[in-house]
Design goal:
Layout lengths: L9 H6 L14 H11 L11 E7 H19 L6 H12 L17 H14 L7 H9 L9 E8 L3 H21 L3 E5 L6 H5 L8 E10 L26
Antiparallel strand pairs: 1-2, 2-4, 3-4
Bound molecules: flavin mononucleotide (FMN).
The site of flavin mononucleotide has 12 residues, from strand 3.
């Protein structure tokens, strides 16, 4: 069968996508947003059900959500506890702030801690924040709630009935969408950090309770900021290929 596409550049293209964590404020036309969502929808899907919805926050909606997230983050900053998620946990317990997603504030399993620690450590070193500099780390983390300056934040919700298959479908959609954005010179960053306060997003959009918030994706034109030249470590295939039983 003859191919009607050129796959030669795929590896270099796909490996050149990196999370963007500092954006220009240049607005993104609706048509462009729709195009990348359409590309997202070329992903495979469980029985073609597309069990997800996307809330696209821009302009005033984006600003209101960001403001509310930042004020909640300010509230938790005063809480004691080592990491960001420990702080959220502490404040939620004490002040009863609503949350929708307890999963993301659970500590990582020890199997996964080394990888997570590595990226955190290397990213902070890249932008010159010392491990012990709590204020610097908090300020950097707070940038999540400004969507790193991106003019658009997309909130991806998954249909609760399909459990992990809905999550998988949304992930495939997100990856196609992020690669599409990359092909058009736009930057993205998936953001689990914005999935804590679903109520804030629901206040702005009409979304069925059958869906729950998985994560956000910020979208915009990358700035020249130093953080955008950070290259997260890639593990080797051998680290994830299961050994055959002997
Ligand atoms: C579901 C998901 C949630 C993520 N949440 C965040 C986040 O809240 N903040 C952040 O800065 N990066 C976040 N990331 C980006 C990862 O840290 C990043 O993809 C990883 O370090 C690999 O780097 P790369 O995207 O540049 O290849 C998230 C990625 C995924 C897939």
């Amino acid at each position: 069968m003859t191919k009607d596409f050129d796959s030669n550049d795929f590896s270099s293209f796909v490996s050149s996508r990196r999370s963007t964590r500092d954006f220009q404020s240049t607005p993104i036309p609706d048509k462009l947003i729709e195009e990348i969502i359409a590309d997202g929808l070329t992903s495979p899907s469980w029985s073609n059900t597309r069990p997800f919805v996307v809330a696209v926050a821009k302009d005033d909606v984006r600003d209101r959500i960001s403001k509310e997230f930042l004020s909640r983050f300010e509230a938790i900053k005063s809480a004691r506890g080592e990491g960001f998620f420990a702080k959220i946990k502490a404040i939620l317990r004490r002040k009863g702030l609503p949350t929708s997603n307890w999963l993301i504030i659970r500590p990582y399993h020890k199997d996964l801690v080394p990888r997570s620690k590595r990226v955190g450590k290397e990213m902070l070193a890249h932008i010159g924040i010392e491990r012990g500099d709590k204020e610097g780390r908090d300020a950097f983390w707070a940038r999540n709630y400004e969507f790193f300056g991106a003019p658009v934040e997309m909130f991806v919700f998954t249909h609760k009935s399909l459990g992990k298959f809905a999550t998988s479908d949304a992930g495939l959609f997100m990856q196609n969408l992020m690669l599409s954005a990359h092909s058009k010179g736009l930057g993205t960053c998936a953001q689990g950090s914005v999935a804590v306060w679903e109520d804030v997003v629901r206040k702005e959009f009409s979304i069925s309770k059958k869906y729950s918030l998985l994560c956000g994706i910020c979208l915009g034109y990358p700035s020249e900021g130093k953080i955008n030249s950070f290259n997260a470590h890639r593990i080797a295939p051998s680290e994830i290929i299961a050994p055959v039983k002997k």
